[in-house]
Amino acid sequence: MSNHAQGQRARLAELLTATGPDSPTLCGGWLTRDLAAHLVMREARPDAAAGIVLPALAGHTERVQARYAALPYEELLRRFREGPPRWSAFALPGADEAANVVEYFVHAEDVRRASGAPAEPLPLDPALGELLWQRLGLTVRMELNRRTPVRLVLSLPDGRNVVAGQKLVGTVRVVGEPGELLLFAFGRGARARVAVSGPQDEVALLRGTVGLPAVSP
Questions:
Q1: pLDDT of residue 217
Q2: What is the pTM of this model?
Q3: Predicted pLDDT of residue 56
Q4: Domain locations in the chain?
Q5: How confident is the model over 6-16, as a mean pLDDT?
Q6: The three-state (H, E, C) secondary structure of the chain, written as one string
Q7: pLDDT digits 0-9 by tens, 163-186
């Protein structure tokens, strides 16, 4: 059975190595060193990783992540490549595949697309593309539902779709491949290759809150 998490871990590690410790990412002002520290902390320090989702612990998370970021960059990447410590929840059977495929795919694109130059989507293995599509619904519920100001229909080219903001007014349609829709749902819409259509005022509202590419493909 394919292990897509391992493949995406290796791809992300290669990108972090190639760009070096002080390159930009799409993660809210983080440099590549900060992203690498986040990745290692997330697997090795569950007490600190909790602050990623619990605002009350955010200060603790930031302090622990800063200590990791102070490590030599090569050491951070070594720890990331090796995977979670044996005692980590991420080392449990199936946990890596369940929790890290989307995480590593999105962060790899955060590194790859951060230069500002257009980055064409990479061809995806069909099985990986299908897995990313299956995970999109959860991302929409956890991320996009709380941010979209209008009803959104996220569609694959084959017509399958998932809806965000079901009870909101209006409808904007966003069409793209699974990886591009995931990037859009995670707030990377300005760097995603998606086609957006809908009433002009609703599209403008969406652009100001969620982010849209300057020009749809």
A1: 54
A2: 0.93
A3: 80
A4: 4-112, 127-209
A5: 97
A6: CCCHHHHHHHHHHHHHHHHCCCCECCCCCCEHHHHHHHHHHHHHCHHHHHHHCCHHHHHHHHHHHHHHHCCCHHHHHHHHHHCCCCCCHHHCCCHHHHHHHHHHHHHHHHHHCCCCCCCCCCCCCHHHHHHHHHHHHHHHHHHHCCCCCCCEEEECCCCCEEEECCCCCCCEEEECCHHHHHHHHHHHHHHCCCEEECCHHHHHHHHHHCCCCCCCC
A7: 999 999 989 999 999 999 999 999
